[in-house]
Amino acid sequence: SQEGVYGKPAQEDFTADHERWKNIVSKSYLNGMGIDWSYVRNVMDMRAVYGGFAAALKDLKLWVMNVVPVDSADTLPIIYERGLFGIYHDWCESFSTYPRTYDLLHADHLFSPLKKRCSLVSVMAEVDRILRPQGTFIVRDDSETIGEIEKMVKSMKWNMTMTHSKGGEGLLSVQKSWWRPTEVETITSAIA
């Protein structure tokens, strides 16, 4: 039989992924992270693998855009087979969507491999562009990468709702704020 993304036989890999996300969503995301799911309509899984995260949200009134990064295994046909939406994308480039489209962005182990190819600052600028104010950004990655992202979201004045690290793995949940600079410098020569 074929080998799956996580190194197990394909069917076993798929089933394990489905069970993993069902447990994480029911035990952590739905109750333990302070997310008001009644305001969440548009969700993006930035590294969808088999679409397990989206499948775990199936009972909520929302839709999920599943993104398969171009440098990952080609699992988009599996996502389509599950009846889910999906697209290929290179996160070193802009994502083709309107600004502030998504209420929740989810990135599971996206950033640690991505930082070998491009700047995380430019990826975070894209996250800032497509996430609505008051939207939630959930990142699961290695602790070092979580620390880098934490510094960036703090510099953007986003609200940290949860950060946790255990055994080299980290989880970060933040809410994008409405923050704007309080003083605006006006350069009179630019106006004239």
Automatic annotation (TrEMBL):
Q: What is its main location?
A: membrane
Q: Which domain of life is it from?
A: Eukaryota
Identify one Gene Ontology CC term for this UniProt entry.
endomembrane system
**Tell me, what is one Gene Ontology molecular-function annotation carried by this entry?**
methyltransferase activity
Q: Which organism is it from?
A: Brassica napus (Rape)
Which residues, if any, are the signal sequence? none
Question: Could you tell me the Gene Ontology terms of the biological process aspect for this record?
Answer: methylation
Cite the EC number: 2.1.1.-
Q: What is this protein called?
A: Methyltransferase
Which family does the record assign? Belongs to the methyltransferase superfamily.
Q: Which UniProt keywords apply?
A: Glycoprotein, Membrane, Methyltransferase, Signal-anchor, Transferase, Transmembrane, Transmembrane helix
InterPro entries associated with the record: Put_SAM_MeTrfase (IPR004159), SAM-dependent_MTases_sf (IPR029063)
Q: Name the membrane topology term.
A: Single-pass membrane protein; Single-pass type II membrane protein
UniProt enzyme class: transferase
Compartmental location: Endomembrane system; Membrane
The record's gene field reads BnaC03g59080D
Read off the Pfam families from this record: Methyltransf_29 (PF03141)
